[in-house]
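Attaching the record inline, Q. Sequence:
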Amino acid sequence: MSVKAVLGCQWGDEGKGKIVDSLSKDISIVARFQGGANAGHTIYFNGHKIVLHQIPSGILQKNAACLLGHGMVIDPVGLTEEIASLEKYGLEPERRIYISPNANIITPFHKEKDRLLEAAAGKQSIGTTMKGIGPAYAELTERQSLKAWQLFDEATAIHHLTRQYHQLKIQFGENVKPIESYSPLLESFFLNVGQILPLIRDFSKLLLDTVSNGKNILIEGAQGLLLDLDYGTFPYVTSSHTSTGGIFTGLPLNFRQIDKIYGVYKAYNTRVGNGPFPTERKDVIGEQLQKQGFEYGATTGRPRRCGWFDAVLGRYAAHLNAVDEIVLTKLDVLNDFSELNVAVAYRIDGKEYRDIFGMMHRLSDAEPIYEVLPGWQQSLEGIKDFADLPHAAQDYISFLEKEIGRPIGFISAGVNREDHIIR
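Structure, as predicted:
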């Protein structure tokens, strides 16, 4: 049996889609357990750029079943668009996608509430993707969410939507448009619901039988540990559990059934939206990282904030995600730097800290303490063996291993599927 999980260990956008694609060979199942259309995984297939938001990246493996777990919030409109974008490559997504009947459904009124909440917050806004994720999860905790299995009864779905609209009116008053103004969105919603109904089917037996038969399963996380609802930089977080623990609340598996956890880290740090970012560079270095890494959100298109690698948060994420092996991505983005900084500790109120446990609320006050390493200033194109990397690149990787306390077994140094090194 081989059940492996791929989890982000920063603020998302680490390059999980590419590693999932690479690990997906010979798998029977790839599964998502949390999040929704706020995720954005960019992968390249036969020279074509594909951006996935709700469908697992393992969909590119033509025989793999793709499971959307009950911990997810599903946007029917966005999902049908993704399915259509994959059909032209002969991937037959409708045959292989399973939506948990207990998954939660995003409606047009969740998106509207998201927009209204962000507008009301002004400068204190979270910087959400406006995909309705937070409102949908909030409704779940209030035990009022629209479940996928309820979509089979249109009257029940209409009842939920009517209630959502009235609650919007109560909360936001005149800022909410007349119900007639939402008619095109509601028509589109129900049209797309009709298209995904055949995909709503329980996959518990399929998943557990696959585990029992010793076949390969890959679990794909969305976002990253630092956006976790409990462990992230609250309140600037997502609305789901992005850590290892989220697997067991979003899929019918238990912790003893996971064989290996890959933690994905970018070779530097990025963040979309608001919130603390100790190693952020708002200068030419940050601009160069953004330009070289093409750091723009796959979901929103917003430019990502960029900075040096943060080993303090790296250790934090490795521990909480129970990482067995690190995947380091975008190493090639650092090619042109003469020197590289890595934050190994913080200074807060004059005191030095190597760990941030119990102090995430002080992250905005953290001054990074850097270790400076030499850059390699040469291309990594075509390198397939660790020993062929420039010595400075090897030293950088070894330094990160030492600081985080986990081995780096997979190194990505380019956008193409084959641009990686396995140690």
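The radius of gyration is 21 Å. The chain has a mean pLDDT of 94.

More tomorrow.
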